[in-house]
Amino acid sequence: MDARQRGITIRGDSVQLSFTFQGVRCRETIPMPPTKTALKELALKLQAIKHEIRIGTFDYFRHFPYSKKAKEFRKTRPDLYTIKEALINWLRRNQAKLQKSTLQDYNSAIYYHLIPIFGDLTIAELTAGKVKEWLSELPCSNKRKGNILIPLRQAFEELFHDEVIDKNPLTRVKNLPNKTREPEPFTQDEIARIMNELTGQAKNLIQFAFYSGLRTSELIALRWHDVDFENNRVFVRSAYVRGQLKDTKTKSGKREVTLQPQAKEALLNQHAFTGKQNEVVFHDPDTNQPWRNDQPIRKKIWIPALKKTNIKYRNPYQTRHTFASMMLSRGEHYMWVASQMGHKDWGMIIKVYGRWIPQLK
């Protein structure tokens, strides 16, 4: 029997082995001179490969570690395919359709949390118990834990749908309940004291925050073409997240907000600073450049103002809670308030702000 008939083909100074695995015709080239000894060794190797294929123990990667086919076939072996490989491959396949900030979050979750803990395990070795035990010791909020798990959940979901695994252990791992921070809205006296400490663009920004209910990321992305003074409204279409301009978080987040008198006053005052030659409404007064995230606002404006007034510190998000509580206290319908704040679920308004709704008292 010649070499070709045995599945061995001589190609110059190398030898090609041919075999069928999982219904696919495979050809792998071995870079070695086709001496009689070499051909005998390769015949035995090919015989071993075919035997392993018959009994279901063939590991393509072990025989041909540098083969492109090996990497593809390895994905079909949950007892060989590592979680590190699965996560990296999942991220590579999906990164083009992810927003930049989301991609940064997933990279952080994969390389900082998931791979160091689970990366060396094979797909088959991961259990719900291992994930739950790790989560119980992870020093961060339940919301953050849920976000870290997203890439792992989605990678395993794909493996399940591709029939690489018969069961997805992540379906047995429920996200832990988020602890909603209790709203601590500012009183009218506190708002007045804060406003008295601010001037110019800083005052306009914080006043608009208190009386519009916008998130800080939405405030700093507001553009003058989003402002409709004639019809007393602004359109919330985008947000700055980690220095990147992106669409609002949800479809309900893209909304029309009615201008309260104090919010309109803040915009009219701000127009003198940025309304003529600038696209973005709110600028850092020190640089006269648009804000790119909330940290400088917190450090340069918010914290100093609260310290000077000796008001108990609450984060800038409480301006949003203040808006909601004010609107509800004066009798505005909770569904209207939900639409103003960009909530698709008005039930959350009742849950979080129920004590400010007169008809529920």
Task: Give a structural overview.
This protein has 361 residues and is mainly alpha-helical. It folds into 3 domains: 8-65, no CATH class; 83-172, Tyrosine recombinase, N-terminal domain (DNA polymerase, domain 1), CATH 1.10.150.130; 188-360, Orthogonal Bundle (hpI Integrase, Chain A), CATH 1.10.443. The chain has 15 helices and 10 strands. It has helices at 36-55, 60-63, 68-74, 83-94, 100-118, 128-137, 142-161, 188-197, 200-212, 216-219, 261-274, 295-309, 318-329, 334-341, 346-353; strands at 8-11, 14-21, 24-30, 227-228, 233-236, 238-241, 244-247, 255-258, 283-284, 289-290. β4 (227-228) and β5 (233-236) form a beta hairpin. The protein is elongated and about 95 Å long.
Query: Hey, roughly how much beta strand do the residues contain?
Result: 5-15%
- Spell the H/E element sequence: EEEHHHHHHHHHHEEEEEHEEHHHH
The Cα radius of gyration reads 30 Å
Mean pLDDT rating = 88
Our count of helices gives 15
Helix residue percentage: 40-55%
Strands ordered across the widest β-sheet: 1-2-3
CATH class of the largest domain: Mainly Alpha
Count structural domains: 3
Structural class: mainly alpha
Main beta sheet: strand number and arrangement?
3 strands, antiparallel
Query: How many β-strand stretches?
Result: 10
Using the alpha-carbon principal axes, give the shape: elongated
